[in-house]
Amino acid sequence: MYNLVIRGHDLTNVTTPEQLAQETQKVGIHNLQFAMGASFPQMDSSASALNPGMGTYFKNLFAKHEIQIALLSCYSNLIHPDPQAREEILHKFETYLRYASFFGASMVASETGSVIPNLGYTEDNFSDEVFADLVQVIQRLVKAGEEYKTLVGIEAGLNHPLYSIERTKQLVEAIDSDYLGIILDPTNLITVDNYGSMVEMVEEAFAQYGSKICAIHLKDFIISDGKVKPIALGQGLIDYPAILKIVQKYKPYCYIVLEQTQDQNIITANELIAKI
């Protein structure tokens, strides 16, 4: 009862759309988080290039291999400090929302970004002023989502304005829309001090805004050199059985997106999850 998803670019030897479809089928997965720019850097994935034919091509190609695009990735710095750069980023996201249905995707996904252009760490991200700015940005995107009937999937992370369960709840409370979805990646919200409480953190997220959670990112980790470092599922410390049982309790068949799990490790992860 788990709807497993992989990121297309985690199949590392893929160079063509047909090959991506074939390799995804080979590893036994039926859902993709599709980032065109990551999977096919040579392909123009800009706002001006997107069109219904492009979306329909990918939708039909993947369907032949019993695969759907679960999430369309448009990961960008949504709060870029340069007004012109931000406008281009938001326009691209809105364009992805416009054409998502042609790809067969129910949502377009992104993290929130940073007040530093290169997404570097700064405590400036944690201010109420930056959060208020973020709310305005997400409100704009959600309005487009409402128009095109596509979810806006927003992912929290420690270094971003959306850095905690509490801050995410504030965003949910500030934006009253059925088209705001939250992508929960618990590994993005832990430190070397609190990683042992990850399962409780997941429970808390579902208790606070479970109705808004539209996908889970499942990313294993180790503690190395005083840092949380991602690793393939099953090779680290994450209590994925406990987390998946929580997801099953609150959101049966919710999309479970593997991260940092590539190639042969995808097959292994699929087998591990099937045993739960």
Task: Write structural notes for this entry.
The protein has an 8-stranded parallel barrel, surrounded by 5 helices. A two-stranded antiparallel ribbon has the order 8-9. It has one domain (3-274): TIM Barrel (Alpha-Beta Barrel), CATH 3.20.20.150. The protein starts with a strand and ends with a helix. It is an alpha/beta fold. α3 (52-64) crosses α4 (83-103), α6 packs parallel to α7 and α7 (198-209) runs parallel beside α8 (240-250). α1 links the parallel β1 (3-7) and β2 (31-34). It has helices spanning 17-26, 36-39, 52-64, 83-103, 128-148, 165-174, 198-209, 240-250, 264-274; strands spanning 3-7, 31-34, 68-73, 107-111, 151-155, 180-184, 213-218, 220-224, 227-231, 255-258. 41% of the residues are buried.
Task: Provide tags for this entry.
single chain; 276 residues; alpha/beta; TIM Barrel; two-stranded antiparallel sheet; 10 strands; 41% helix; globular
Structure in a nutshell:
This protein is an alpha/beta fold.
Q: Helix count, per DSSP?
A: 9
Order of helices and strands: EHEHHEHEHEHEHEEEHEH
Q: How can the largest sheet be summarized?
A: 8 strands, parallel, barrel
Oligomer: single chain
Overall 3D shape? globular
The CATH superfamily bears the name Divalent-metal-dependent TIM barrel enzymes
Computed CA radius of gyration, to the nearest angstrom: 18 Å
What is the total number of structural domains? 1
Unreliable residue runs: none
* Strand content bin: 15-25%
How far apart the termini lie comes to 10 Å
Calculate the mean pLDDT score and round it.
97
Side-by-side strand order of the widest sheet:
1-2-3-4-5-6-7-10
Instruction: Give the class from helix and strand content and strand pairing.
Output: alpha/beta
The name of the CATH topology is TIM Barrel
Q: Estimate percent helicity.
A: 40-55%
Please provide the count of β strands. 10
CATH class: Alpha Beta
CATH architecture term = Alpha-Beta Barrel
Protein name: Sugar phosphate isomerase/epimerase family protein
Keywords: Isomerase
Domain Xylose isomerase-like TIM barrel: 56-264
GO molecular function, one term: isomerase activity
